[in-house]
Design goal:
By secondary structure, the chain is mainly alpha-helical. It folds into 2 domains: 11-68, no CATH class; 70-114. It is built from 4 helices and 2 strands. The chain has a two-stranded antiparallel ribbon. α1 (3-26) packs antiparallel against α2. The longest helix is centred in the last third of the chain and has 46 residues, at 70-115.
Length: 136
């Protein structure tokens, strides 16, 4: 987290935590919780009920956001795989280019050597060679 983000998180979280502590300190009375179709009662402090409700709402929102982001996470995974495949293809192409450049350098070296006459073939011998000399 950047320093600016950390600063703003402190600005937001400090009053929230302070308000939560003041709420818990001010509401220590007990409350009876009942779930209508069932014959079950729970006695808890008002602060616990309030903070528990906030926590349950936070969890509900977090799960909802996580589920709704599933498609985006799936796309991100697919794109990451495609990027890795493209990087592998680039590396393969670079290797192929290096091999082809080496072959090109070797062919250019042979062509330069042939042009300089260093590797000219010897003149042909025999009756056909003599006939060509007389024609010229």
């Amino acid at each position: 987290m950047t320093p600016v983000g950390r600063f703003f998180s402190w600005i937001i979280l400090t009053p929230l935590v302070l308000g939560l502590v003041l709420f818990a300190a001010s509401n220590r009375a007990d409350v009876v919780l009942r779930l209508w179709p069932f014959d079950y009662e729970l006695t808890a402090p008002v602060a616990l009920v309030g903070v528990g409700g906030l926590f349950a709402g936070f969890l509900w929102g977090a799960v909802t956001v996580w589920i709704s982001g599933g498609a985006a996470r799936g796309r991100a995974r697919r794109e990451a795989y495609r990027a890795e495949a493209a990087e592998r293809e680039v590396e393969r192409c670079k290797t192929e280019v290096e091999v082809l450049e080496e072959k090109l350098r070797a062919a250019e070296a042979r062509a330069t050597a042939a042009a300089s006459g260093a590797s000219l073939p010897a003149p042909a011998e025999g009756p056909a060679a003599g006939a060509q000399r007389h024609i010229l």
